[in-house]
Specification:
By secondary structure, the protein is mainly beta. It has a single domain (3-653), classed as Maltoporin, Chain A (Beta Barrel), CATH 2.40.170.20. Helix content is 6%, strand content 55%. It has a 22-stranded antiparallel barrel. A 5-stranded mixed sheet has the order 3-8-9-6-7. The protein has a two-stranded antiparallel ribbon with strand order 1-2. The two termini are 39 Å apart.
């Protein structure tokens, strides 16, 4: 182990010695996980679940969901580009097609490709919490929850508030948004509009993004009806996102929209939630930005879904059941016009047997192109003491091939319409501990997968890779998280630590003939120190160490400073008042050739690309400043800055490594195989 590695490991251990807050524990205990049909408090679930609350988001200084998720052990965010680029989501070593994203329980899976999963994530201003369910979740959600699922729960009200956020930074970065909350006696509305722009940290890495969000709850006095609508438009340079040719100047435009309507009927023992929703995706890719006729892919996908989830409580326990019907369709110049119909039926029952709570269940799925599949599973837990819980679960899971897997074609890539779904049997055992100051959890898991989809060629002289069910992979892992709270200067200080170990054993696979190779996070350390030394000032220091299956280890340091301005001004409407302005701060930091956030922005020939020119990184910026103004300004009013934060990120790696697209081998040419 090199000296730098030893120093970083020692720092991580020092940070680990202290962790978590009493407030955090108490808050989590009161949270009900509502992403399943049987709603259970966080501390009674027999699965490995992480919760990121609105308070966590506010204190983190993070400005997007990707920044939040990469601080969670077992979650791997691989980015191409900065805030405006593309992010892929991985949980416990699974692929980007194997993790399901939900928004308020609505499944946001895309039948074209999993590369668009993170295009649907919401702005942090409207998020109440994020539920991260690790391990196989097909029994709960159906297909695509192969290795886990993430449910983003939106806020229901903002209490008549207007929030304006401004963010500025290096490379021409300028982001702004406005969020409005309006509350009436019988309804509540939240509206958000935002824009993110940047010139880019290197050639062809610019972006111009817009996002819109609207949520309304109507008829609250009688039968509340909830409506959610989102629209995201992204335009960005995609330099070597998918290819290895340094002469290409790739460009991409994506759109993602959602419209959902739901309500809930309740009685003492019975609850049922019907929902109807529509999700639309659009993707346009140019291999050469200034020459649309050279190579162009254009896809429009639609998903229309109707579902009903219900639960019934009796002396025998709680029974959850549901039906989900959806229709996928795609119009594409490459994939053709395709359609898929899916029907899911869910059933589970939770009961007590002595000290044990047991939840067996099954999901049955019918695909019009893959017929019938069933995923049984069972969760078992026991509350040993009021502080200690032991749990285990086992279940089957699967993923149907995307339309890209089945039908994609370019000069170097061929889909395969005869593919079979990916399947796996997964097991997990774990223990959780919570008291007023300390929390900890340990989970050991295994996943035996078969029929995993890879792109192969018959020999090394062949240029075309064809999709095939060839790989069998056995994945074992250990995941540990802990936290501790202590006081300093009468203020709470918190520290968290997480570690994940993954080992993938690939069976019967010739890597020289395979395009896709597993490159999971073999070792992942995440530590976070949150301190408060003054009344209105908080600091965060985040350290992350990562070592992948392929490549050398690297480290990431993030630091943020949050200043809370309260009761900045009390005045009447006619009085003179001063509104503080936001600040633009640019600082250049030395960096080694690569970082976590740029690890997948590499030139596909193996040359590592940087945020800044040569071997420097410019990433010191004011993240945002918020102003909250009561809507009824005709009364004496208060202008208050809620949060002013400075976010500093320094990323470096101990040794130089060669990184291309996470699934592409060095020197491969694929056109648009991954999308």
């Amino acid at each position: 182990m090199s000296l730098i590695k030893k120093i970083n490991f020692f720092l991580a251990l020092c940070i680990y010695i202290q962790t978590f807050s009493q407030e955090k524990i108490q808050e989590l205990d009161s949270i009900v996980i509502n992403s399943s049909r049987i709603n259970l408090p966080f501390n009674k679930n027999s699965r490995t679940i992480n919760i990121i609350t609105a308070k966590d988001i506010k204190n983190s200084a993070a400005t997007n969901v990707a920044d939040l998720l990469q601080q969670v052990a077992g979650v791997d965010i691989r980015r191409r580009g900065t805030g405006g680029g593309q992010s892929d989501l991985y949980i416990r070593g699974g692929g980007f097609d194997q993790t399901l994203l939900l928004i308020d329980g609505i499944k946001m899976d895309d039948a074209q490709t999993g590369h668009h999963t993170m295009n649907a994530v919401l702005p942090v201003e409207v998020i109440e919490r994020i539920e991260i369910i690790k391990g196989p979740a097909a029994r709960i959600f159906g297909q695509n929850a192969f290795t886990g699922a993430i449910n983003i729960v939106t806020k229901k009200r903002l209490k008549n508030k207007v929030s304006i956020n401004v963010e500025a930074g290096s490379f021409g970065q300028l982001n702004g948004s406005a969020t409005l909350g309006k509350e009436t006696e019988n309804s509540s509305i939240i509206a958000h509009v935002g824009a993110l722009t940047s010139d880019g940290y290197r050639n062809n890495s610019d972006y111009n993004n817009q996002n819109y969000f609207l949520k309304g709850i109507f008829n609250k006095k009688n039968q509340p009806i909830e409506v959610i609508a989102t629209f995201f438009d992204k335009k960005f340079g995609a330099e070597n996102f998918y290819t290895t040719n340094v002469t290409f100047n790739e460009y991409e435009e994506t759109q993602n929209s959602l419209l959902g309507v739901s309500t809930t009927f309740k009685s003492d023992k019975f609850k049922v939630t019907p929902r109807i929703y529509w999700r639309r995706g659009q993707d346009m890719f140019l291999l050469r930005r200034d020459d649309s006729g050279f190579y162009r892919n254009f896809h429009i996908t639609n998903k229309i879904g109707v579902e009903t989830n219900a639960s019934y409580s009796s002396d025998l326990g709680i029974t959850g059941f549901g039906v989900d019907f959806s229709r996928f369709s795609i119009q594409s110049n490459n994939l053709g016009e395709r359609a898929r119909t899916m029907l899911n039926v869910f059933l589970e029952h939770r009961f007590k047997l002595g000290a044990f709570d047991i939840t067996p269940g099954v999901a049955a799925t019918y695909f019009s192109d893959f017929k019938f599949n069933a995923f049984p599973g069972i969760d078992i837990g026991v509350q040993v003491t009021n502080k200690v819980r032991v749990y285990g679960n086992v279940g089957y899971t699967f993923r149907a091939p995307t339309f890209t897997d089945l039908y994609y074609s370019d000069p170097a890539t061929s889909g395969n319409p005869n593919l079979e779904p990916e399947k796996a049997l997964a097991q997990e055992i774990g223990v959780k501990y919570n008291d007023n100051k300390f929390s900890g959890s340990l989970a050991i898991f295994n996943r035996d997968s078969e029929d995993l989809i890879d792109y192969i060629r018959p020999n090394t002289d062949a240029s075309i890779f064809t999709a095939a069910n060839i790989a069998e992979v056995s994945t074992q892992g250990i995941e540990f998280e802990s936290g501790y709270k202590f006081k300093m200067s009468n203020y709470n200080q918190t520290i968290t630590f997480g570690y994940t170990y993954l080992n993938d054993d690939i069976l019967d696979q010739n890597k020289d003939l395979s395009r896709y190779s597993l490159n999971t996070l073999k070792h992942q350390f995440i530590s976070r120190f949150t301190s408060q030394l003054f009344k209105n000032v908080r600091q965060n220091i985040i350290f992350k160490h990562a070592e992948r299956t392929v490549g050398t280890s690297y480290n990431v340091w993030d630091a943020s400073l949050l200043v809370d301005f309260k009761e900045f001004l009390n005045s009447s409407l006619n009085s003179h008042f001063f509104v503080p302005y936001f600040l633009i701060l640019r600082t250049s930091l030395d960096s080694s050739p690569n970082s976590e956030t740029v690890s997948n922005n590499a030139n596909s020939t193996g040359e590592v690309r940087l945020f800044a020119v040569q071997n420097s990184l410019t990433l010191v910026w004011i993240s945002f400043m918020r102003y909250s103004i009561p809507i009824k300004v005709y009364k004496p009013f208060r202008i208050k800055t809620e949060i002013f934060s400075v976010f500093i990120s320094k990323c470096y790696e101990s040794e130089k490594r060669s990184v291309a697209h996470p699934h592409l081998k060095k020197g491969a040419y694929t056109g648009r195989s991954s999308n």
